[in-house]
Design a protein that fits this description.
With 141 residues, the chain is mainly alpha-helical. The chain has one domain. The chain contains 5 helices and no strands. The longest helix has 34 residues. The protein starts with 8 loop residues before the first helix and ends with a helix.
Length: 141
Amino acid sequence: MHPIIHPYYPLLAAFSSMFAAQVIKHLFFLIKGTLKINAKNILTAGGMPSTHSALVSGLTLSVALSQGLSSTPFAICLVYSCIVLYDATGIRQAVAKQAAIINRLTPTDEKKLSEFIGHTPQEAGAGVCLGLIIAALLYYL
């Protein structure tokens, strides 16, 4: 066990993972030239890596390391993480595909639905890896 664990370590790990994922995502967008940085786009969903996946995996690992694998908080975090990952790669990905089809069928003068909602399994997996790495680094450094 790590000798000194900051009392807010799980929150620090979760939000650091989320922030890192959002920064990396926007760097990818800037490199590809597909998104401009502004206040609206900073909080955008979708893309590589998944911010939601990074947040929940960082939280879950930090709780596992600080509270133990047999703790109730870890069990809650693990179940919550599974729900978030299922939602991001399943339900929200399906909604994004439906939005793309609806947008093609609607007149051009109507407001378009957001097609940038869900994540591919690779985007979610990258978010999970990032969250695990950041939570581990914060714990062991």
